[in-house]
């Protein structure tokens, strides 16, 4: 049983797995950056929002640039370079007091913080055979969520003693991740002679472009949980603690349930499984139109978390199936771009919908989730044909 879950992967994958876990274990700045800017640096909510928007724009371009670097320079160099740059930016941001310095640090941080993702995804696609990729991506998903769950609890406690601790821990964990990859993961990028076409070739792949749009729709739905949901909860007279309690169900379920159902899910078609997960997630968000208590929100979180568990690992597996070997970094960058764009759109459109009404927001978000699921189901046969060889 244990062998079916974690056996059969090369040592390089487990180094990547361990580094990813350590990196997420130290992810303490990003979840609390709004609190840091307003409380430690005395910014207004508007000013803090603008600074975070600068970070979001940097993140949007980060995935495309990092995807190009992963194919052009190499997976190992891109991942290590991104983590070292992240560590430097974290420390600089922790000590910067001027507004211009904070804006500059946040802009660069947006560019480098998640630059490791396209390289990491390309590494998995290079190292793991196609039939085992959903399992590999699922394990990375589990490591990310376990590390992040611990980081949220520890970060909240450490912030009481001073935010500078968060910046140092985040920076050191990034350095550890980069060091592990540099020392123990071989370069897997195809020979430079095959590095042709670039993003122009990727953008000509209509199936991939459609998949990116579908991913953006799903990202818009899922990221409401961390942008508009806290506002909706407190807007109904509940406390921020109620939101924290409800959202904690997400991490607990993922850590417990995903390892149990992962092997069974991995035996099914990734495209169809992804569509089912999107539909369940959309239904879970739509359910929040009908709740107004902490228990009600927690119940809705259970439903959309099950959808998230179903999709775990499938998104990366689909990208790996669609991407030619010499363009895996760029395809992963396009996939990451969809998530970054969703992260920008989620609070912008979500807050606007919330002003129209609580039910309007969640019914609309649920409908977008179902739309993404339908789109994913439609393109699943084409994905299956592409990955058949």
TrEMBL record:
The keyword Endoplasmic reticulum does not apply. InterPro entries: MFS (IPR011701), MFS_dom (IPR020846), MFS_trans_sf (IPR036259), MFS_Transporters (IPR050171), Sugar_transporter_CS (IPR005829), Tet-R_TetA/multi-R_MdtG-like (IPR001958). Residues 12-384 form the Major facilitator superfamily (MFS) profile domain. It comes from the Bacteria. Its main location: membrane. GO terms for cellular component: plasma membrane. It is found in: Cell membrane. It holds the Pfam family MFS_1. GO terms for molecular function: transmembrane transporter activity. Keywords: Cell membrane, Membrane, Transmembrane, Transmembrane helix, Transport. PROSITE patterns: MFS, SUGAR_TRANSPORT_1. It is a multi-pass membrane protein. The chain crosses the membrane at residues 12-33, 45-70, 99-116, 137-159, 165-185, 206-223, 243-265, 272-291, 297-323, 335-354, 360-379. SUPFAM superfamilies: MFS general substrate transporter (SSF103473). Belongs to the major facilitator superfamily. TCR/Tet family. This is MFS transporter.
């Amino acid at each position: 049983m244990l062998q079916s879950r974690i056996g059969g992967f090369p040592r390089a994958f487990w180094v990547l797995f361990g580094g990813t876990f350590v990196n997420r274990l130290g992810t303490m700045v990003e979840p609390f950056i709004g609190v840091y800017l307003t409380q430690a640096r005395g910014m207004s909510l508007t000013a803090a929002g603008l600074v975070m928007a600068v970070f979001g724009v940097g993140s949007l371009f980060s995935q495309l640039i990092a995807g190009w670097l992963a194919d052009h320079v190499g997976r190992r160099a891109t991942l290590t370079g991104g983590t070292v740059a992240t560590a430097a930016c974290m420390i600089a941001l922790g000590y910067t007091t001027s507004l211009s310095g904070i804006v500059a640090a946040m802009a660069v941080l947006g560019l480098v913080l998640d630059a490791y993702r396209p390289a990491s995804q390309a590494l998995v696609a290079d190292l793991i055979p196609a039939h085992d990729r959903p399992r590999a991506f699922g394990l990375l998903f589990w490591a990310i969520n376990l590390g992040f769950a611990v980081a949220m609890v520890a970060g909240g406690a450490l912030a009481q003693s001073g935010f500078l601790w968060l910046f140092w821990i985040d920076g050191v964990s990034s350095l550890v991740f980069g060091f592990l990859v540099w020392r123990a993961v071989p370069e897997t990028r195809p020979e430079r002679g095959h590095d042709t076409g670039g993003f122009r070739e990727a953008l000509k792949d209509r199936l991939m472009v459609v998949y990116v749009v579908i991913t953006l729709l799903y990202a818009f739905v899922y990221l409401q949980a961390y942008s508009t949901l806290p506002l909706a909860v407190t807007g109904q007279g509940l406390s921020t603690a109620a939101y924290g309690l409800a959202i904690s169900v997400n991490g607990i379920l993922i850590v417990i349930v995903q390892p149990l159902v992962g092997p069974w899910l991995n035996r099914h078609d990734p495209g169809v499984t992804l569509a089912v997960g999107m539909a369940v997630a959309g239904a879970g968000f739509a359910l929040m139109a009908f709740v107004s208590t902490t228990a009600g929100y927690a119940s809705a979180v259970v439903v959309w978390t099950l959808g998230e568990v179903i999709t775990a690992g499938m998104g990366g597996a689909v990208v790996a199936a669609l991407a030619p070997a010499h363009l895996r970094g760029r395809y992963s960058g396009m996939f990451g771009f969809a998530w970054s764009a969703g992260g920008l759109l989620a609070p912008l459109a979500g807050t606007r919908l919330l002003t129209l009404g609580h039910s309007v927001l969640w019914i609309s978000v649920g409908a977008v989730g179902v739309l993404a699921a339908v789109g994913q189901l439609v393109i699943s046969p084409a994905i299956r044909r592409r990955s058949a060889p």
